[in-house]
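Subject: Re: docking follow-up (nicotinamide-adenine-dinucleotide)

Dear J.,

Thanks for your patience while I sorted out the input files. As discussed at Tuesday's group meeting, I've set up the holo structure prediction with nicotinamide-adenine-dinucleotide included as the bound ligand rather than trying to dock it afterwards. The sequence and the ligand SMILES I used are pasted below, so you can double-check that they match what you have on your end before we go further.
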Amino acid sequence: MQRVMLVDQLIKKIAEKKVDIGVIGLGYVGLPLVVRFCEEGFRMLGFDVDSKKVALLKRGKSYLKSIPSHQISNVIRSGLLDVTDDFSRLSEPDCILICVPTPLTEKMEPDLQYIERTTEDIRKHLRKGQLIVLESTSYPGTTEELVLPRLESTGFKVGRDFFLAFSPEREDPGNKRFTTGKIPKVVGGVTAACREVAAALYQQVIEKVVPVSSPRAAELTKLLENIYRSVNIALVNELKMLADRMGIDIWEVIEAASTKPFGFSPFYPGPGMGGHCIPIDPFYLSWKAREYDFTTRFIFLAGEINVHVPYYVVAKIQDALNGMGKSTKGAKILILGVAYKRDVDDARESPALAIMNLLKKKGASLLYHDPYIPSLPRFRKYHFPLKSSPLTENLLREVDAVVVVTDHRSIDYPWVVKHAPLIIDTRNVTKGMKRWEKKIVKA
Ligand SMILES: NC(=O)c1ccc[n+]([C@@H]2O[C@H](COP(=O)([O-])OP(=O)(O)OC[C@H]3O[C@@H](n4cnc5c(N)ncnc54)[C@H](O)[C@@H]3O)[C@@H](O)[C@H]2O)c1
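The structure tokens for the complex came back this morning:
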């Protein structure tokens, strides 16, 4: 009776937009989610441990390229958004969405410290009738094995006193066509009531909600999506290396294969795998699979091939320099684009960093240009204290080679090719530039 009452009360409150919603972790996933709920008139309370981010948001400033500051200042001014690093306020929201990081440790194992800390913060302030949704990508079982027992240690029962679900984030930073509200949202609740309440919440802001039978099914859905990409990118990267040896242009082949109207989805080769999802998430599953005496061979093979690609690119750079009578040692090399993908301001896990690291070890002198990354911060594995060099004709003339790692749309590639002595192109930006063929190397 009480369960039904709490479910109905919360669903009614959601439908009337009278719920307060908390989002924990205001990064690439959390902040767009906050903005999306505000757009629909929900009152939001954002939590982050990073007091600099909290201070910026309070002043109406955004730190993400995909979210203009005026969007933040509007919602702060209207009173719809409040942000805090005071986690005792976690008792205030009716619904709490967790968007904290889920990286890997040095040993390539899940680093669950952020989820653990957040769960502990919520546990301390849990109150009856709250909905908690984990959005951070993790292995199947995280919601029910890690989060649930800690929350139930309060004496509250899931599905009766509070609601718990997993709903993976599918944010595609920089994608203007599929913004947060347009990407279908998969939702798995610990109980049917949990799923019902979580689905009711997302239905308010997302065009299509896809309920599944359990949090584990939702957790594995997200991993399947990322493993599918990782494996297919590895496949096409492997074929790229073979095609190069055979003297065939892999880009031409992919374009031709893409004309098949069924049974083929194009994936494109690149300088290696980047971002904080595809190189990382599959290993959450391979780690968990060990508990079931299971080896995820595709995941390891894809990882192995994708990790090798920066080495292949560097070998191509060396060969190209050699062809011009130059050695890598002492060569001045401009890395064009360090973001992990086009038109984003995020260089975490970017293959540019692996390539730069290998080139540095070989004694190259490095510069970079990226219109969206003015300076390189310290990363998990690498630190290059460099600032983005202005892209000028003089710079292009004075370097020994330009390596196109990220194909940002704002760069005038024919102009770059015209002025640089040598181009190593990992993204096919030089497609059709036959005039300058002699100084272009596809890698
Ligand atoms: N970025 C993407 O494109 C993307 C897409 C899909 C899924 N994901 C997943 O979403 C999750 C978040 O990723 P992200 O890219 O937004 O990360 P992010 O690093 O951009 O943001 C995470 C935020 O959480 C904050 N934080 C860390 N610990 C905290 C704590 N204990 N309490 C409160 N805040 C805390 C950090 O300060 C940061 O602002 C990860 O699990 C990631 O795998 C990311």
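A couple of observations from a first look. The pocket of nicotinamide-adenine-dinucleotide is lined by residues 24-30, 47-50, 53, 99-102, 114, 117-118, 136-137, 169-171, 173, 276-277 (CB under 6 Å). The mean pLDDT is 95.

Let me know if you'd like me to rerun anything.

Best regards,
T.
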